[in-house]
Amino acid sequence: MTTDDLLAAAQDLAQRYPRADLIKNSVGNLVVVDEDGQSVAYLDLSTGEIDTF
Question: Could you tell me the superkingdom of the organism this chain comes from (predicted)?
C-alpha cells in the first residue's frame, strides 16, 4: 500500500468519524480514536493494513 493509499484511507475514516482523532501509537502506527476514546481503526504503516472495529 502506498502513502497515497494510506492517506486516502485515513481521510475516508475521518469522514466516517468526524469527531475522531488520529494518533500515533508507541510503535509508530496510526490509530483512529472516536469522541468516546474508543479505537475505531488501526493503520499499520509497516504492512499497509487497515483494521476497522
Answer: Bacteria
Report the predicted TM-score, pTM, of the whole model to 2 decimal places: 0.69
What are 35's three cell numbers? 469522541
Using DSSP's 3-state secondary structure scheme, residue 41 falls into: strand
16 with 52: CB under 8 angstroms?
no
Residue 20 and residue 32 in contact, taking contact as beta carbons nearer than 8 Å: yes
Residue 41 CB-density burial (10 A; 0-12 exposed, 13-18 middle, 19+ buried): buried
Average pLDDT, the chain: 84
SS3 2: coil
Q: Strands across the sheet with 39-43, in order?
A: 21-24, 30-33, 39-43, 50-52
